[in-house]
Amino acid sequence: MAERTPWSLSGALRGMFQRPTITEDTWDDLETALVGADFGPDVTEAVIDELRANVERYRTTDPRDLQRMLRETIEERLSKYDTTLRLTERPAVVLVVGVNGVGKTTTIGKFARFLGTYGRSVVVGAADTFRAAAVDQLATWAERGGAQIVRPQQQGQDPASVAFQTVEFAKRTGTEIVIIDTAGRLHTKGGLMDELTKIRRVVEKQAPVSEVLLVLDATTGQNGLAQAQAFIEHAGVTGLVVTKLDGSAKGGFVLAVQEQTGIPIKLVGQGEGIGDLTGFTPHVFAQKLVG
Amino acid sequence: MATFGNLSDRLADTFKNLRKKGSLSASDVDGTVREIRRALLEADVAFEVVKDFTSRVRERALGDEVNKALNPAQQVVQIVNEELVGILGGQQRRLEFAKTPPTVIMLAGLQGAGKTTLAGKLAKWLAKDGHTPLLVAADLQRPNAVTQLSVVAEQAGVAVFAPEPGNGVGNPVKVAKDGVAYARSRQYDTVIVDTAGRLGVDAELMKQAANIRKAVDPDEVLFVIDAMIGQDAVNTAKAFQDGVDFTGVVLSKLDGDARGGAALSVASVTGRPIIFASTGEGLDDFEPFHPDRMASRILDLGDILTLIEQAQQAFDEEEARKVAEKFATDSFTLEDFLKQMQQLRNMGSIKKMIGMLPGAGAMREQLDSFDEREIVRTEAIIQSMTPAERRNAKLLNGSRRLRIARGAGTTVTEVNQLVQRFEQAAKMMKTVARGGVPQMPGMGPIPGAHGGASRKQAAKSKKKSGSRSGNPAKRAAENSGAATSGAAVPAGSGFGLGLGGGAARSVDAPSEDELAALQKFLGRG
Ligand SMILES: Nc1nc2c(ncn2[C@@H]2O[C@H](COP(=O)(O)OP(=O)(O)OP(=O)(O)O)[C@@H](O)[C@H]2O)c(=O)[nH]1
Ligand SMILES: [Mg+2]
C-alpha cells in the first residue's frame, strides 16, 4: 500500500533542490514545504533559522547541502527519544487511546499480528462499549490478527470492568500481552477523560500498565498537540502511534508533539491491511520525508 | 494553543501603540498582518490560502477605507472578519431536495472523518422534519461498518438497506444503486448513501466513489471532513472534488477545540459551501453551519471585545478605572450614569462594535432598534435634577419626580423608568465589578447562542463541573447538558443603557469571555 504514493516531501522540495544555488526563493519554498507538512509555524521557523545559520557557517550555496542538513536536522530531532516498546511484564498490558476515528481499533488488529509474528500470545479487550458496533469491529480485527478477545457481557458495560476482565483472563490463561481498545473521545471532554483515568486505575489493581499508546492521525494539524497534552495528563501516555501515513498527509505535527512532551513515537501505521504497521525508525522516517 | 496566547491578545499588543494615532502606517499594517498569518497557520488554514488572504487584508488595510475610519485598528479587524465570512460562504446554504423523490444524498470522505455517524444524524434530522429517509450501507470495506450503520439507523428510528455483510464482501456500486431503487419502490423520500472512507491519493478507490456517484445520480454529495485536519485538507478536498465532485461540505468533530482552519481552506479552494456542522457523538449533535461563528472561531476572536475596547480611544482608561471603583463602592451616581452615556455616544460606533462580537446576531437586532434619541431624553431628565438629587437617587420622591418630568418636557413614567434602570445598572455593575456573576430572574442562558465562544466556554465549564460518571451511556446527556451550562448573566448593555425598555430582556446574555473583557475594561482584569 505504501508504495502507491511516495509519502514524502520530495514533491514539494524537488524544485527547490534542483536550483543551482540557494536563494531567497529556496527559503520560501522550504517554508512552504514545512508548513504544508504540518510542522506548524513554530517548528518551521526554528528549523529554518537553524538551517540558515548552518548555511551561513559552512558558507555553502549548494541546495544539495541544504537537503542533507534538513534531513539531518529532522533525524536528530526525531531520535532524541527511545522508541522501544516496553513489554517485559507478564502479562504486559497495553492501553490504546485517542480521539475519534484516528485508527485505534485498526492499529490493535495490526499490532496483535505484529506481536504474533514474534511468537507472543495476545488477548484484546473490547472496552469501547459506547460506539455502535465497535465490539464487532474489534472482534473482526482480533480474528485477523490471531488474538483472543474479551467482550463486554452486556451492552454499555462499564469499560473499566471490561479492561479488568481482560487482564484477569490473561492471568488465568497465561496470555502474554493484553491490548485494551478504548472508545474514541475528544480530549476536551473532561468526563470522558476521567473515564480513561479510571480504566487505568482499575487495570492497575491487577497488573502494572506497560504501555499507554496514543494514536495520532497523520492528517491532523496543530490540534494534535492539544490532544497529546490532554491524553498524557489523563492517561499517562508512554508512546505515540502515527497512523494513515499512507495518505498525502505528512504528520509533521508529531515532531512538535515529541519535542514538547518528550513522549516518543513507537509505531507507524500505513494502511488498512493487517500487515501495515511498523516500528518507528527516525533515520528511515527522515530519509523518506526529505528524500 | 494557550502557549502562544490568542490572536486577540497578540493583536491587542500590536495595536497598543496605534491608540493615539489617527492612521496606520505600512509597518503597523505589516505587523498586524504577520500576527494574522501566524494565527491562521496555527488554526491549520492551508498555507496557500493564508498567503492569499493576508495579502488581500494588507491591501485593504492600507487603503482608504481604513485611513478614513474613526478607529483604524478596529477597522482592520473588521476587514479580517469580513474576508473570513466572505470565504466561508457568507450565507447558510440549505440542502437541495429532488423535485421528484427520492432525494439522494451521498456521503464521501477520508477514513475516520465521521461519515457513518453523520448518516445517522442526518437521517434523524430529516425524519424530524417529516421526511422518510433510508440509510444505504455502501461501506463494505471497514470491518463492521454495515453493523454500525444498522445500529445507528435503529437509534435514529429510520430504515436501513444493508443487503451485503461488508468486511470486503459485496459491490458498493451495486448496493448504492439497488438502495435507490428500493427507496423508490417503498416510497422513502430521501436516501443517504454511506460510503467507505478513502484516501485522496487512492486512485482506485476514488474511481469507485465516482462510479457510485454515477450509479445513483445524487442531488447532494456531501464531503465530510474532520475539523482537526491539518494542511492536507487542501490536497484531500481537491482530490475529492476531482474524483466525485461534491456539492457541499460537512465539518465534523467541531465539539473539540480545533480552530477548524480547514473550513476556510476547503471553502476557498473548492468554492463549495459548508452546509452542516457535526458537534458530538450523539445523534442530535448536528446543526446547520454558521459562517460568522466559524470566522471568529478560526481566529479565536471570542474576546474581540477586549481588543476593540483597548483600541477604542473614546474611553479614557483613567475614567474607566474611576467608574469601576464607584461601582464597587456603591458610590455610582446618576451623574456618572449620564457621563457614561455621553461617552458612549461619543464612541459613535457602538452598533458596529457590538455587531462584531461573535454570534451577536440577536444583540445586533436589539441595537438596531436602539435609539440615540434615548440618550438625549435621558440627558434632559438628569439635567433637570438638582445636583443633590443626581448624587443621591433616594431623594427622588413623587413630587420631585413630577418637577423633573416637567423640566425635561416628559412624563413621570419616563422618569420612573430611568431611575429604575439606573438602580438596576448600578446593582448589576457592582456585582460585576466585584468579580461576581449577577443573577437576573427569568433570564435563562440561550443555548449555543454564542457560536465558537460559547462552545469553548461549555467545554471549559464542563471540565470543571462535568459528570464524573464513568458510564458511557450518560454521554449523550452530558453532551447536551454542556450546551446549556453557560452562566446566567444580565441582559442588555452593562452600561445601563435601556435599549428600549423591556425589549432588552431578550438580548443574549454576554459570554464569560465578554464579561471578562468587561471586567478588564473596568480595571479589574
Ligand atoms: N489509510 C489508512 N486508513 C486507516 C489506517 N488506520 C486506520 N484506518 C482507517 O481509519 C478508519 C477509522 O479506524 P478505526 O480503527 O475504526 O479508528 P478508531 O480510532 O478505533 O475509531 P473510533 O473507535 O470510532 O474512535 C477506518 O476506516 C480504518 O480502516 C491507516 O494507517 N491508513
Ligand atoms: Mg475503535
Automatic annotation (TrEMBL), chain A:
<dbReference type="Pfam" id="PF00448">
    <property type="entry name" value="SRP54"/>
</dbReference>
<dbReference type="InterPro" id="IPR003593">
    <property type="entry name" value="AAA+_ATPase"/>
</dbReference>
<dbReference type="GO" id="GO:0006614">
    <property type="term" value="P:SRP-dependent cotranslational protein targeting to membrane"/>
</dbReference>
<keyword id="KW-0378">Hydrolase</keyword>
<dbReference type="InterPro" id="IPR036225">
    <property type="entry name" value="SRP/SRP_N"/>
</dbReference>
<dbReference type="InterPro" id="IPR042101">
    <property type="entry name" value="SRP54_N_sf"/>
</dbReference>
<dbReference type="GO" id="GO:0005525">
    <property type="term" value="F:GTP binding"/>
</dbReference>
<dbReference type="GO" id="GO:0003924">
    <property type="term" value="F:GTPase activity"/>
</dbReference>
<feature type="binding site">
    <location>
        <begin position="98"/>
        <end position="105"/>
    </location>
    <ligand>
        <name>GTP</name>
    </ligand>
</feature>
<feature type="domain" description="SRP54-type proteins GTP-binding">
    <location>
        <begin position="91"/>
        <end position="291"/>
    </location>
</feature>
<keyword id="KW-0472">Membrane</keyword>
<dbReference type="GO" id="GO:0005737">
    <property type="term" value="C:cytoplasm"/>
</dbReference>
<keyword id="KW-0547">Nucleotide-binding</keyword>
<feature type="binding site">
    <location>
        <begin position="181"/>
        <end position="185"/>
    </location>
    <ligand>
        <name>GTP</name>
    </ligand>
</feature>
<feature type="domain" description="AAA+ ATPase">
    <location>
        <begin position="90"/>
        <end position="267"/>
    </location>
</feature>
<feature type="binding site">
    <location>
        <begin position="243"/>
        <end position="246"/>
    </location>
    <ligand>
        <name>GTP</name>
    </ligand>
</feature>
<keyword id="KW-0963">Cytoplasm</keyword>
<dbReference type="GO" id="GO:0005886">
    <property type="term" value="C:plasma membrane"/>
</dbReference>
<keyword id="KW-0342">GTP-binding</keyword>
<protein>
    <recommendedName>
        <fullName>Signal recognition particle receptor FtsY</fullName>
        <ecNumber>3.6.5.4</ecNumber>
    </recommendedName>
</protein>
<dbReference type="InterPro" id="IPR013822">
    <property type="entry name" value="Signal_recog_particl_SRP54_hlx"/>
</dbReference>
<dbReference type="InterPro" id="IPR004390">
    <property type="entry name" value="SR_rcpt_FtsY"/>
</dbReference>
From TrEMBL, chain B:
<keyword id="KW-0694">RNA-binding</keyword>
<dbReference type="Pfam" id="PF02978">
    <property type="entry name" value="SRP_SPB"/>
</dbReference>
<keyword id="KW-0547">Nucleotide-binding</keyword>
<protein>
    <recommendedName>
        <fullName>Signal recognition particle protein</fullName>
        <ecNumber>3.6.5.4</ecNumber>
    </recommendedName>
</protein>
<dbReference type="GO" id="GO:0006614">
    <property type="term" value="P:SRP-dependent cotranslational protein targeting to membrane"/>
</dbReference>
<keyword id="KW-0342">GTP-binding</keyword>
<keyword id="KW-0963">Cytoplasm</keyword>
<dbReference type="GO" id="GO:0008312">
    <property type="term" value="F:7S RNA binding"/>
</dbReference>
<dbReference type="InterPro" id="IPR003593">
    <property type="entry name" value="AAA+_ATPase"/>
</dbReference>
<dbReference type="Pfam" id="PF02881">
    <property type="entry name" value="SRP54_N"/>
</dbReference>
<dbReference type="GO" id="GO:0048500">
    <property type="term" value="C:signal recognition particle"/>
</dbReference>
<keyword id="KW-0378">Hydrolase</keyword>
<keyword id="KW-0687">Ribonucleoprotein</keyword>
<comment type="similarity">
    <text>Belongs to the GTP-binding SRP family. SRP54 subfamily.</text>
</comment>
<keyword id="KW-0733">Signal recognition particle</keyword>
<feature type="region of interest" description="Disordered">
    <location>
        <begin position="435"/>
        <end position="490"/>
    </location>
</feature>
<feature type="binding site">
    <location>
        <begin position="109"/>
        <end position="116"/>
    </location>
    <ligand>
        <name>GTP</name>
    </ligand>
</feature>
<dbReference type="InterPro" id="IPR004125">
    <property type="entry name" value="Signal_recog_particle_SRP54_M"/>
</dbReference>
<feature type="compositionally biased region" description="Basic residues">
    <location>
        <begin position="457"/>
        <end position="466"/>
    </location>
</feature>
<dbReference type="GO" id="GO:0003924">
    <property type="term" value="F:GTPase activity"/>
</dbReference>
<comment type="subunit">
    <text>Part of the signal recognition particle protein translocation system, which is composed of SRP and FtsY.</text>
</comment>
<dbReference type="Pfam" id="PF00448">
    <property type="entry name" value="SRP54"/>
</dbReference>
